[in-house]
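Tokens in:
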């Protein structure tokens, strides 16, 4: 049985299914509910994190607790029980027992749980957490909620991670986190409906597809891709750019080009033919193709797409930090990364996993939705990290597009 049959949900689709209502939840409101504002923690107002952690005094304890999304690690059923082969192999190699908890149903809910604990100086109960870029990982850094990593304890990461994930703009030197999996936001279309291949993001705004375009009901990818459509690199965007992007999206809406602003339903729209072209996540389209919809195509537009990343980090107060960093590094062993990638079918941060899967005859090895080429990577953009009052300005502009 191939991975697509085993794993019916991508992590991204689960996020959309479980947290569809969260798209309208502003970050400023979230922070207020957690007892704080959007300003970074620390005297200079920049990302602080918890620097200067004394790794030399840490000892292996033989146990570690990890919080992650459902369906986001390999599974196998043994004697009626669900097991995780990569974690079992870690325990066999290190004598460290892993308590693996599928605790994340939406990032909003998860961070609403852990942020007040971190700000009160209390332990979260987790040693490794999966958190997200663009919104949540930078927030945890700015709030001093993450332990700075010791890269001498991350030999697999340093040896095998793809260059795209090294020394990233939102965490210079990978001081506070390393990627677990990534995915692409781009353009999906039904070639039976379009009659031709599509390569430009401008197709989303074309009257040719009036009433047949799907967009996301969110304030991350829809605004970011509108900026890309204008030729603006999102991290470099200004408030004037945001206004222009909001105007572009409002024009698209008012001209009747958009059929609907979707949560996860855009895939159904493409499958039934009510949508011809849509903003999309690569993993969702790969799953649809595997389920018998070869007419659905995905492209990173020539103007660019977005690269989202789920990141492993160690929260301040973790009881077993040395065991935690050993587990994080374990996932960068190419053989382990190959097992994860075969199951999850998101972008692996370990390029060497591709050749291992190819030798095993796994078809996922040939998917450029899982192993993007260097040329595709060169077109994938980072998101704009919002600070302070920028969150309110951004939300006011872009929520208004689809809440009318």
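Residues out:
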């Amino acid at each position: 049985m191939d991975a697509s049959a085993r794993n019916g949900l991508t992590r991204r689709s689960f996020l959309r299914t479980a947290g569809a209502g969260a798209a309208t939840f502003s970050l400023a409101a979230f922070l207020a509910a957690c007892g704080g504002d959007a300003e970074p923690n620390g005297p200079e107002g920049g990302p602080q994190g918890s620097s200067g952690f004394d790794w030399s005094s840490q000892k292996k304890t033989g146990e570690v607790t990890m919080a992650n999304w459902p369906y986001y690690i390999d599974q196998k059923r043994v004697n009626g029980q669900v097991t995780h082969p990569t974690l079992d192999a870690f325990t066999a190699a290190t004598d460290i027992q892993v308590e693996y908890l599928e605790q994340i149903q939406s990032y909003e809910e998860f961070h609403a749980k852990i942020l007040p604990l971190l700000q009160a100086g209390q332990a979260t109960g987790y040693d490794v957490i999966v958190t997200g870029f663009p919104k949540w990982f930078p927030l945890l850094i700015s709030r001093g909620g993450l332990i700075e990593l010791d890269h001498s304890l991350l030999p697999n990461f340093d040896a095998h991670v793809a260059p795209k994930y090294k020394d990233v703009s939102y965490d210079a030197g990978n001081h506070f986190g390393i990627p677990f999996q990534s995915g692409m936001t781009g353009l999906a279309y039904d070639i039976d409906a379009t009659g031709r291949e599509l390569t430009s993001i401008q197709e989303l705004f074309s009257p040719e597809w009036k009433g047949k375009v799907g967009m996301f009901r969110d304030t991350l990818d829809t605004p970011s891709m509108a900026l890309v459509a204008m030729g603006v690199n999102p991290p470099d965007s200004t408030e004037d750019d945001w206004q222009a992007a909001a105007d572009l999206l409002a024009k698209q809406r008012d001209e009747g080009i958009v059929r609907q602003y979707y949560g996860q339903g855009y895939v159904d729209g493409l499958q039934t033919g009510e949508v011809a072209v849509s903003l999309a996540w690569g993993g969702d389209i790969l799953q649809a193709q595997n389920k018998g919809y070869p007419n659905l195509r995905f492209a990173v537009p020539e103007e660019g797409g977005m690269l989202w990343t789920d990141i492993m980090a160690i929260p301040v107060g973790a009881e077993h930090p040395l065991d935690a960093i050993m587990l994080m590094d374990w996932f960068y062993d190419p053989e382990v990364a190959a097992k994860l990638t075969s199951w999850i079918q998101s972008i692996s941060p370990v390029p060497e996993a591709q050749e291992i899967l190819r030798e095993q005859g796994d078809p996922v090895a040939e998917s450029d939705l899982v192993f993007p080429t260097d040329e595709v990577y060169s077109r994938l953009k980072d998101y704009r990290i919002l600070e302070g009052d920028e969150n309110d300005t951004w939300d006011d502009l872009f929520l208004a597009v689809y809440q009318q």
